[in-house]
Amino acid sequence: MSTYDDTRRAWDEASSKHVREYAEHLEQARTARLLPIEEEQLRPLIEDAEVLHPQSGHGLDDHALIRLGAHSVLGLDYSPTAVAAAQRRADELGAQCRYELAELPDTGRPAQSADLVYTGKGALIWMADLDAWAAEMHRLLRPGGHLFVYEGHPLVPLWAWDHDEARVREDRSYFAASHVNDTFPARGATEHQRTLAQLVMTVLGAGFELLHLAEHPDPFWMPDDENPAAAWDGRLPNAISLLARRRR
Ligand SMILES: C[S@@+](CC[C@H](N)C(=O)[O-])C[C@H]1O[C@@H](n2cnc3c(N)ncnc32)[C@H](O)[C@@H]1O
């Protein structure tokens, strides 16, 4: 069994959380909102948009995208458990969200079928081939369509989770190609790294123009811990937002 299969199995097992917490997620979906920076970037371009959400996971953001004005959202994920839980919730709420199984970077979706691709929050680190990912995002978008990514900052794998002081882990390098995940949910799986410059240059090289790029101090996810890591105290970058437009 390959490392890739192990990672996929780890995600499907981790996605059983979406089933266990179904009732809670259902309530959250009724009022879900995107982060303020996401709403600020997406509000001008989302009205009636057909949105594609690769690696949609629990899919709560899809309800937020509809609330912001999207016409519909198609979530794609390779976890059957995640896809089934998200579809059940969307059906129960009568939301214009649909979910399909797909294994990135090749989604198998028709070319130019989306106005907006929304992705991130723990997605890109699972992509071994970022060029292939960027080419697929470009293929899926109609000319002039937008790619929006809200993602962990490429420096995040370096931050230790010490509470007293922010520290750089001795076993990690900003310039490494990958590292082994040592936390939930994919302990032991290979995560793929790229620098911020590599990410931006890959997106530009795939045929996009950059409209927005920002770094943010708050992580997109924190463990349920009373005492958060010192690396999250507002002095270090923990997330990025990127908006790019497909050139015609
Ligand atoms: C950290 S979750 C984030 C998902 C979503 N942004 C959210 O907030 O729930 C990562 C998701 O990517 C999916 N995933 C990882 N690698 C994938 C691949 N190659 N193809 C499709 N889905 C993948 C996993 O199943 C998981 O649902």
From TrEMBL:
InterPro entries: Methyltransf_25, Methyltransf_Superfamily, SAM-dependent_MTases_sf. One of its GO terms (biological process) is methylation. GO terms for molecular function: 2-polyprenyl-6-hydroxyphenol methylase activity; 3-demethylubiquinol 3-O-methyltransferase activity. Its EC number is 2.1.1.222, 2.1.1.64. It is an enzyme of class 2 (transferase). It comes from the Bacteria. Residues 56-145 form the Methyltransferase domain. Keywords: Methyltransferase, Transferase. PANTHER family: METHYLTRANSFERASE. This is Class I SAM-dependent methyltransferase.
